Amino acid sequence: MRAMQNDSSSPQAPAARHTAALVLFSGGQDSTTCLAQALSLYERVETLGFDYGQRHSVEMQVRQQVRERLSRDFPQWAPRLGDDHVLSLDVLQQIGGSSLTEDVAFAMQADGLPNTFVPGRNLLFLTLAGALAYRRGLSVIVTGVCETDYSGYPDCRDDTMKAMQLALNLGLERRLRIETPLMWIDKAQTWQMAHDLGGDTLVDLIQRDTHTCYQGTRETLHDWGYGCGTCPACDLRARGWHQWQAQRETAN
């Protein structure tokens, strides 16, 4: 069924009717890379962030400076970057039970998932993104979920994205497409993708301006960016950086 098609492969020219995209944009490495790719592909790109009481709420503060720097450093993208939207999802904090919304130590749960898992978060994100895309006349929803380098979150899986795309198409009676550019690549390849899109300038932007750390720490600038250096998000980002650097040295 065409409604279940999910374009999560490498970058390619969009279909003629898909000219405007909504990027789920947290201000982190992954969503910034996805935003850069969308700006290279689509005529109009809007962004959507969610304030759900996350401990690392500093990501909400860096979002604007990332957008501003993308427009300044890549003038060819500036005319394509449209409105930014922020929606409140305090209900996720009210449900509780996650180390992303409560001041508890990072740990593994009995079900094998880390307690950074916020049940239903990405399902809610995509549902609201679909509603906003409907109102804004946007036909593509871009999200940086990944099944290669991830913590096992079930709402990041490719099957989940396909199911959500089908549900949105049926429930909204619109031909929306969910794109997951990072689904099958690891963090080293994500750094490479950023470099392919915007060279050293985009890599530097991601290093200095984006935020991924679950602790919300922006006191120390590492070679891979700001962060505590010990949380799961920092670990993934740092390991990907060092793998990418090692691959570049080997290639040279």
TrEMBL record:
- Pathway info: Purine metabolism; 7-cyano-7-deazaguanine biosynthesis
Q: Does the keyword Lipoprotein apply?
A: no
- Residues that, per the record, bind Zn(2+): 213, 228, 231, 234
Listed A to Z, the keywords are: ATP-binding, Ligase, Metal-binding, Nucleotide-binding, Queuosine biosynthesis, Zinc
For the keyword Metal-binding, the answer is: yes
| InterPro entries reported in the protein's UniProt record | QueC (IPR018317), Rossmann-like_a/b/a_fold (IPR014729)
Q: Name one GO biological process term.
A: tRNA queuosine(34) biosynthetic process
Residues noted as binding ATP in the record, renumbered to the chain: 25-35
Q: Which reaction does it catalyse?
A: 7-carboxy-7-carbaguanine + NH4(+) + 2 ATP = 7-cyano-7-carbaguanine + 2 AMP + 2 diphosphate + 2 H(+)
- One GO MF term attached to the UniProt entry: zinc ion binding
Question: Its Enzyme Commission number?
Answer: 6.3.4.20
Enzyme class, broadest EC rank: ligase
Required cofactor(s): Zn(2+)
Show the SUPFAM superfamilies listed in the entry: Adenine nucleotide alpha hydrolases-like
**Top-level taxon in the UniProt lineage:** Bacteria
Copy out the cofactor comment. Binds 1 zinc ion per subunit.
Alphabetized CDD domains for the sequence: QueC-like
Summarizing the function annotation, the protein's role is: Catalyzes the ATP-dependent conversion of 7-carboxy-7-deazaguanine (CDG) to 7-cyano-7-deazaguanine (preQ(0)).
Q: Which family does it belong to?
A: Belongs to the QueC family.
Q: Could you tell me which NCBIfam families the record lists for this protein? A: 7-cyano-7-deazaguanine synthase QueC
Task: From the Swiss-Prot or TrEMBL record, give the protein name.
Answer: 7-cyano-7-deazaguanine synthase
- Gene that produces this protein: queC
